Amino acid sequence: MRNTRYVKGNPIIRQLLVREAARLMYEEHVKQYHDAKRMAVKRIFGQGNKGNTYVRSQDLPSNGEINAEVANLANFHEGNNISKQLFLMRVTALDVMQTLEKFNPRLIGSVSTGNIKKSSDIDIHLFLDHIEQLEIQLNALTWDYERKDVTINRSGRYVDYTHVYLDRQFPIELSVYHTDDIKVRTRSSTDGKPIKRIGSDKLLQTLLDEHGEEWSDYLLSET
Questions:
Q1: What is the per-residue pLDDT for 83?
Q2: In percent, how much of the chain has pLDDT > 90?
């Protein structure tokens, strides 16, 4: 029978797991926090260990800790390029949101918060009654897109969601919800708090507040 080793809470070990999980997400593009934590445990404790190593869930770092470390890595490695990319991603998001304004678009995720990395995409929620409404407009705009339908088990109930991926300067994921769902605040997998969603007016104000000079130059270049 193989030996089993349990690793209990230790601030040094926790920090090692934070750094390795963040590195996996930043450098190896692991998407899910759960996967990054599991792989970090294996990378740190697996080498030279002939048995199994288990870390209690309460001793694992939180998604928020890992997300903050990913942001630190992005800032360290990409520096000023990240600021420029963030501005361009927000401009792209604003253009898409204003074009699809009748679907009440809401920007979420890293482009909204500013904690992007080089491989980040733009996440936008849309609210409509029938997916065909969106497809008709995208076809009229001649935008290249790909539709993907996903079934998710939510509290024992299977719910179908549609995601639309746009081929633009940056990858864009449009998550489609029913019109009434705009009143529902889902919680973030990062910190468990209600997801922050901003509309096009708020995004424009963010551009003015955080990228004032770049925004002015951009407007002049478009005239």
A1: 87
A2: 50
Give the whole-angstrom CA distance, residue 120 versus residue 90: 12
Residue 196 has what pLDDT? 87
158-167 burial, b at 16+ Cβ within 10 Å, e below that, comes to eeeebebebe
Displacement of CA 121 from its chain's centroid (Å): 7
Domain spanning 80-222: CATH 3.30.460: yes
DSSP secondary structure letters along 51-85: SEEEE-GGGSPPHHHHHHHHHHHHHHHHTHHHHHH
Structure tokens at 70: 């990913």
Sheet hosting strand 122-128, strand order edge to edge: 106-108, 122-128, 171-178, 157-167, 145-154
pLDDT digits (tens, 9 = 90+) for 101-159: 999 999 999 999 998 888 889 999 999 999 999 999 999 999 999 999 988 776 678 88
Nearest to 111 by CA among 74, 144, 65: 74
Would you kindly state where each structural domain of the chain is located, as residue ranges?
4-78, 80-222
Contact 142, 125 (CB under 8 A): no
Q: Indicate the SS3 state at residue 144.
A: coil
Q: Does 1 have pLDDT greater than 50? A: no
CA atoms of 198 and 94, how far apart (whole Å)? 11
Q: Which helix (H) or strand (E) holds 208?
A: helix 200-210
